[in-house]
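Lab notebook: predicted structure, single chain.

Context: the supervisor wants predicted structures on file for every construct in the current expression panel, including those that have not yet been purified. This is the next one on the list. No modifications to the sequence; it matches the entry in the shared construct table.
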Amino acid sequence: MNAVAKNRQPSVWMLTACGLWLVGLGVYFMVLRPPLLPEDPRFMGTTLARIQADVPGLADWLKRVFTVMGGFMAGTGVLTLFVAQTALPSRPHGASWAIALCGALTVGLMSATNFALHSDFRWVLLVPALVWLVGWLTYVAKH
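Prediction complete. Output recorded below exactly as produced.
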């Protein structure tokens, strides 16, 4: 199978899409995400004004935390893109468990946590987890 045909495998393009999504999400967390979303105080049973009064440095601290977290997301996305485009087509030994673990620890855990928090974004964040799962299942089914 030539390189072009290998890169047309559904698992390759699904996991490529997940890698791109992770890079974009990481950039969002580093550059655009506010320290607290409207759902955050609601989950904590308080108001934004109360949080700002009780913990005045929280917003600045969270901005730093989200910058680091966004960097890790984007970095994971870059590695996912690389693996999807270079390793998956050649089907190296161990790739299936690495893909499964990476998906579970990134998009899977994020989706599950957002459901546990009853996040406003939980259904949107389920999509990348499902795409990753289908990509992995498609990859495993080809063995």
